[in-house]
Every structure is written in C-alpha cells, then in structure tokens.
C-alpha cells in the first residue's frame, strides 16, 4: 500500500520544504489563543523529552541555563559594547 501524501498544513516545520513554507505559514493559527497553545505544546514537548525522563541528567536544565545566559548577553550587548570602549583613566 502506498502512503497517501500528507497535506502541507498538517506537516511539522522540519518536514516542510522551502517552496511549501508560504502555504504552511498560511495555515497556522496566529490568534492569541493559537500562539498560546503553540507555546504550551512546545513546552510540553521539551518537558517530556528532557525533563520528565526515567534516567535524566543535567542536560535539560543545562540547556535552559545556557539559553538564559545567551539571551541575557544579547539583551545587554549594547551596554557591554559601550563599556568596552570606555577609558577608565
């Protein structure tokens, strides 16, 4: 039996080809409830994959911590760059 083609709207982002990206984005739900549910699904997927495991390590928590540090650095980059060129004498 041959597999039936899956509609573009039902595919996950990593399965969408570049030419189908516009159609895929057009089928997304960009209402506030749709965005909240997408964030909730992403959180649930991350939690079940990295945090809620039988033999877990520090990988999931370390990934969150590294992400937090990177975002904090990007937010403060202008201030850090300004201080780098300042003379203290």
UniProtKB/TrEMBL annotation:
Q: Where in the cell is it found?
A: Mitochondrion membrane
Q: Which Pfam families match?
A: WRW
A GO BP entry is: proton motive force-driven mitochondrial ATP synthesis
Instruction: Note whether Ion transport occurs among the keywords.
Output: yes
Keywords noted in UniProt: ATP synthesis, CF(0), Hydrogen ion transport, Ion transport, Membrane, Mitochondrion, Transmembrane, Transmembrane helix, Transport
Alphabetical list of PANTHER family matching this protein: ATP SYNTHASE F CHAIN, MITOCHONDRIAL-RELATED (PTHR13080), ATP SYNTHASE SUBUNIT F, MITOCHONDRIAL (PTHR13080:SF17)
Output this protein's name.
Answer: ATP synthase subunit f, mitochondrial
This chain's source organism reads Solea senegalensis
């Amino acid at each position: 039996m041959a597999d039936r083609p899956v509609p573009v709207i039902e595919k996950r982002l990593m399965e969408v080809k570049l030419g189908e990206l516009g159609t895929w984005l057009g089928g997304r739900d960009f209402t506030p409830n749709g965005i909240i549910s997408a964030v909730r699904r992403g959180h649930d997927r991350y939690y079940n994959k990295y945090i809620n495991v039988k033999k877990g390590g520090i990988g999931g928590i370390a990934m969150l911590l590294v992400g937090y540090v990177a975002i904090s650095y990007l937010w403060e980059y202008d201030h850090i760059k300004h201080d780098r060129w300042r003379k203290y004498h």
